[in-house]
What does this fold into?
Amino acid sequence: MDQQQIDIDWTACQGHGLCAELLPDHITLDEWGYPLVDGSPISPRALKRARKAASDCPALALKLTVTGAPR
It folds into this structure.
């Protein structure tokens, strides 16, 4: 089974910080309020919160991507 991780569209991100509130185990904020993603796969129990973070992002700068998928 492929795992998913959070990716950020840096051209769209405006540093609102909502993603870090919704997914604190994978995202922290830098000193300017922009997200720092740990890069680890999203656990099955955090997947619902990760989807919410991506859909609720005011700038739509987050997306879930599948890791380990064939290219």
